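All the exercises in this workshop are built on plain-text protein records. Sequence and backbone structure share a record, each on its own labelled line. The question running through the whole workshop is how a given chain folds. The record below serves as our worked example for the rest of this section.
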Amino acid sequence: MRHLYLAATGQNRGKTTTSLGLLDGFLRRRLRTGFMKPVGQRTIIEDGVPADEDAVLMRTIFGLPEPLAVMSPVHIPRGFTKAYIAGEVVEDLPARIRSAHAAFADHDVLLVEGTGHAGVGAVIGLSNATVAAMLGAPAIIVSEGGVGRPIDEIVLNASHFAAHGVHVAGAIVNKVDVDAQPGIATILERGLARHGIPLLGVLPYRPILSNPSLAMIADGLRGEVVWPGPDLDLVIGQVAIGAMEPRHVLERIGPETLVIVPGDREDVLLTLATAHLMGRPRGATAAEVAGLAEQAGRSRAGPGARPDVASGPARAALGLVLADGYRPRPAVIDAIRRADLFAILVRENTYTVASGVHDLLVKTHASDRAKIALIKALVAEHLDVGRILDVARPVA
């Protein structure tokens, strides 16, 4: 069996994305392929069994037969680290990992996915570098777009692996804006070559892989979903703050925009609801627009107010976050529902909400069919899976 250890330079660099694409590439070559996450930090319960969510994801997507206890031998739930330091964890954790690894001996290739950067896990004696060395697996390091930062991060992590005797087989740079930076792959290749690290490929940036869906927004903000809209699986393309005049809001949004707006800005909300109606494939009927205009006339925006969409083409937002805990009047909420526009009400102020959306941890879910299909296609097109198989070493 050949195996390799997929590491990263930090959180959200694209390690899981790369793992998913590589597993697909290995399986397409009709190789008996296994996946293992030796140390997991995000534990979920699946069929009554605790396991890392990435192990559950890969098992679900690819129908892998191994039990979760083998795919995810060590997971770190809340309080585990303190218990370990206090000497309350007496189990031989390295032995558990070695036993799980040995269960894949009859496979053609095993992809071992690490957690975070090379030093993550050191607090319980199981850093990525330590585990890779224990298994004798070569490491591939994933970083993200740029020039100086990815090279700096890859070199730093490579030095930690090297200090533990782990062979660094190469690096992959993810989320690269190849259109804005022609020739970036050549520059990265030359920069890493100065440190003896091969560049194994570059994955281009795609918003759908980095941005949350409306369902993730709803889960992450933990507010009240006023209206779910037509599809919670839609992915946002950008975020805009709707605290200015309605016509200025319209200038700043597009069809994939999540608009964060104080819940008492009824003029903005009604304008966005109308624009959403007008932006639908079938457009809005005169009765629908007239109905929202009537709602506007009864809103706090003042007598005679109208949705401000006549000054230019309609710009339909994807969803609304009603901030500051202000609940719009029933007539305005009814307008949002009639427009079938996603809306969630939260107590936090606009700045806090915007920061929360920016920091929202975006993970791939087995139900994200479009996202998974794109990942598979990107890896197949932009990574030489055969070359990566070549750097995977047999188990000693």
Remarks:
- The chain has 17 helices and 16 strands.
- The longest strand covers residues 168-176.
- Residues 2-207+364-394 form a domain with the Rossmann fold fold (CATH 3.40.50.300).
